[in-house]
Amino acid sequence: MNFIPLLQAAQGGSWIMMVSLGAVIAIFYFFVIGPQKKEQKKTQEMINALQKGDKVITIGGIHGVVSSAKDKTVIIKVDDNCKLEVNRTAIGTVIADEKRLKEMKDAEQAAPKFSLFGKKKAEPKAEEPKEEPKCPDFR
Question: Where in the cell is it found (predicted)?
Answer without folding.
Answer: Cell membrane
